[in-house]
Amino acid sequence: MSRAHRLVAVSNRVGPVKGAAAAGGLAVALVDALRERGGLWFGWSGRTAPPGKARLRTEKVDGMTLATLDLTQQELDGFYNGFCNNCLWPLLHFRIDLTKFERRQLETYRRVNWRFAQALAKLLRPDDVVWVHDFQLIPLAEELRKRRLRQRIGFFLHTPFPPTEILGTLPPHEELMRALFAYDLIGFQTTDDVRRFQEHVRHAYGGSARGDTVSAFGRELKVGAFPIGIDVDQFHRYAFTVPGNREFSRMRQVLRGRDQFIGVDRLDYSKGLLRRMDAFGRYLEKHPKAHGNVILLQVAPVSRGSLESYRDFRLELDREAARVNGRFARFDWTPVHYLNRALPRRTLAGLYRASRVGVVTPMRDGMNLVAKEYVAAQDPADPGVLVLSRFAGAAQRMKAALLVNPYDGEEIAEAMHRAMEMRPQERRSRHEELMKGLNEYDVGRWRVEFVAALMKAPAWRPVARKPR
Ligand code: ADP
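That is the input. Now the predicted structure with adenosine-5'-diphosphate docked in place:
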């Protein structure tokens, strides 16, 4: 990408810029890329405003421009809480049973994307390269194209892409897929997601897929797998310098020689927390020697707490944690430590480092960065063991973890036991291999490769009309 091109990132939430390192993942990657090129970051302000008062604000921060738009409460309900989190999120994670489709919410989803496009179009320059993030903004490019914008526009899906049988249950699936064909490049987390996308396009719309080119609806676009990574060195530093180091020492003191399993997840039904809790109970049941010697620290901040499916799930998890504690706790030992709070990333790094086993068992996950953070925070001379779900995108390149089927509580319990028994040499060699993978595909490579592929994609052309 030459300097002549400005990078424009669009995501549902913008920032933070100053504290990007603290927010992690996407924020870090985007801020680095945008700072390099004096870029623009556009999205929702995180605020609501009365109708007619929802404003677009722009500000310069650290050599880049932030442009944010307010939503009305009604838009927030129908768009974000409604169609995005109550319909698309469960569907994309293969949970048709939790997917609630409402036409009115789809209407609001369309309208918010229309408003985003209307505001963004005014800010775009002819040579801009636009990178749109995630399922909240699928129709954005189509809306921009309607305004005759011909810039290169790429889309990255952070979630999994579901099989055609599941996607086909979504009433407006064709509308959304057609909208995707207004992009020039679509990036997925894994090659499995790319394959499912290609199969869906062939099967549902009679499209075709050859190599990295997919055609349907009279248009052609490029697809690719761009697995998102973390800033490995930074996370390792967090774990080994103040305050991560201090939290590590405090945790060790609290543990008093006990071994810790750690889970860190947003409180989301896709993360497999219930089965994990149950599996820990099974592990304790089978291994009385572990009683008094092992704890599970589960850090799970409340997420999307206004939605019923999330509230129900939280109650179930509270019960499950209480059940395991009620059954196994002794007056001097509580097996499950359960926190509904977000912690600073530096603190998390110290806690990962103090834990013998990282338990990452989502039922389905686009990538899962916690798995990578846990590995990066380990001491290479005496590393802990990662137990990882086969159904996290991260599993595709983390074969040296103990891979489990998250639907099988017995298998998770066995992996917990195996992790505890693993000899130092095997722990070291697995960790070394995992680190190699993390370093090879870190967050910097993710963004550089995506932007390079977008620049290489053929320039946009309108759908050719057939002569009458
Ligand atoms: P998702 O994006 O679905 O939440 P990921 O595992 O890909 O799942 O990313 C989660 C990110 O949020 C990680 O960077 C992780 O460190 C962070 N995170 C998760 N739980 C907490 C917590 N309790 N406190 C602080 N950060 C957290």
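The first strand starts at residue 7 and ends at 13.
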